[in-house]
Amino acid sequence: MVTDIELIISNSVRIPLSEVIFQPIRAQGAGGQNVNKVSSAVQLRFDIKASSLPERYKDKLLSMHDRRITNDGVIVIKAQTHRTQEKNKEDGLLRLEGLIREAGYEQKARTPTKPSRNSRKRRVDSKVKRGKVKSLRRKVKQD
Length: 143
Prior knowledge:
With 143 residues, this protein is α+β, with helices and mostly antiparallel strands. 34% of the residues lie in helices and 17% in strands. The protein has three helices and five strands, in the order ββββαβαα.
């Protein structure tokens, strides 16, 4: 969620917008006469190492293999889908928020389970039955 002063990631994690650098750039692609005159696209830069994020978020972000994260630990997001700079800025912040939330997500540990005795019995019975069907397809030996 984006407010005027900070980016809210979770209840305990918030990023002040002063840590995010916005740079207006010209958008790519077709757009008529306006595209060459107006810098409506926004390049958003966020330095992971210098940020106020908790250490576990920083470590996870730096270990992610994402093309938007440079070797120096800077997230670079280019937002150019909308016609206005304000909407592109908001879109870039939402994408940054999504990336940081993804880094904060911890996958639950898998608890290994064993197949039940009945399921093992059913499996073996079906294999035996299938083997009998296949044995009936063989040539009959005549003595």
